Amino acid sequence: QIKWPLNLYLAHPTISEEFVLCSIGTLFLSYKSYTDKVKILGIYVNSQVTNPLYSVVGTSEAIRWVNKSVRFIHNLSNSDRDLNFKQWLAGLIDGDGCFLLSKKGYASLEITMDIRDERALQAVKRVYGGSIKLRSNANALRYRLHHKEGLLNLINDVNGQIRNSNRMTQLNKICLKYNLILIWPEKLTKDNGWLSGFFDACGNIQLSPSSDGLSNSPVLNKKQKGADFATAVENRSQLVISLVHKEYNLVISYKDLFGGNINIVSNGQYEWSISYLKDRDQILNFLEFVKKYTLRSHLQKRFFLIPKFFELVEQLDAYQAPKNSMISKSWVIFNNKFQRRIHTNSGPFNQDNALIKLSSLGREEGEASSNLSPLSSEKVTVWGSSMGSGVGSGRLTKQVLEMYKLSNFQYSIVVGLVLSDGYINLDQKAKNPRLCFKQSLDKFPYLWNVFCMLSPFCKSLPQLTLGKRNHTITFALYFFTRSLPCLKEIHQLFYSAERQKIIPENIYHILTPMALAQVIMGDGQKKDRGLGLCTDSYTLPDVVRLMNVLIIRYNLIGTIRENRPGQYRIYISQKSMYNLRKIVSPYFVDSMLYKINSVK
User: How much is the pTM?
Assistant: First the structure.
């Protein structure tokens, strides 16, 4: 059966049971009729083929070739910046992503990255939609996109840029589903953002002890001074940039473009590497490339430290400076900063209620690159949600601490936490208070959600603690913020002179829907198809004041019940649960929706 017009180009003679076709560019072989007899191969390198270009000897009868010389032009009407982003995304997918097509025909995309690379995944999410979630039992994040419109936009953007043979096979299946044509990538050159995206996925940069000394360095071999130089070699760190992947054709591209070496590592993977002692000029060339085609993973910060490395090593001889000298201390500080594992500039997780995503293609805020044009993104964010994380940033001066302010959104979160399980600690010797929050280990998604929204005010990650309750060992996680002047107001509102927690008189104005959601997630209990609030630590007048706000401001029906002598709890009737869900469900973490009889 022959159909017109042409959809596939045949470049070489083909043998099958019923047809002998010559090199004609106007034939289309029905895919449905001959699926079991004909395969379309996308690459020439295949163990089934002996001489793919000029002969069919040794080739399976069920194979025909697609002409690689035929190119479908990918029309790009966007700016160079947008093209760089698409190329970067294709490289990221080639390294850490995969296209999926289920048995029922559902198409999707998944990208898995280290938890420190949230910023890179957020850049993809803002353009195409999708979701980002923590992987269970792994210190990693997974981005998923299965919405048809967003997936088609992504496919149109990366089609023609994908180079991993496995990804091309996966993408081809989805293209067939949506009646699209798979586009072959052009030859890889140095002016291609794909290289930075693939490096974000599979690359690494590290300082490690040198095993071969400094004798190979053209800069440092002039400074050898006997025993002193031997000591310098022992204390010297070797700067190494490397990339590991199992597909040789992709790894060799870096050697062809930037020099360096290729080695075979474990599991049959290939490693490309350049080191300071052997490839100093190649490192500088690669650094210039990264400045133009910026990285978006946590590796970006380390690349920005490379000029400082060259300054300390080549100009100041910091690696062999006297132990207690200022230059030696500077070298120690540099090493500590370089080895810091936490990406300190990644913003908090953007929740659906804190971010409205528009489809414009914009560069991520805070991305340092002088080669990109001004930010053109039109997305709307809650004020303060774009603040960078403070984790790992060390001590701050008094002047910097006084500049920290809570946005209205963050203020509501803190109010809700203090009303429930959180507390504000003010030591007698401390000038400023800090917020502390603790939850059992099984409530990790809730605690992590809160931490991500308040991470600009924290200097460390949540920590694990052990406890004992009724002869049973319990596990919990907790975090605390910095001691900040902006928390003084809330401390004065919620604590009496005797340091007892109270309900402030202005609770009507500060109990926002977000604050109420935090109270329910922390102290709420599903009870009799209604909801109970564990307000045991408050006095009866305080509980009455809180109950009045729920009745007057939110039109909820409720009662106050005595749980134990002197301990009172609020019970919200089943009749008000529908209204309550409408008020607080947009701010709820999925794992806590059961408390309000809701499923997302």
Answer: 0.45
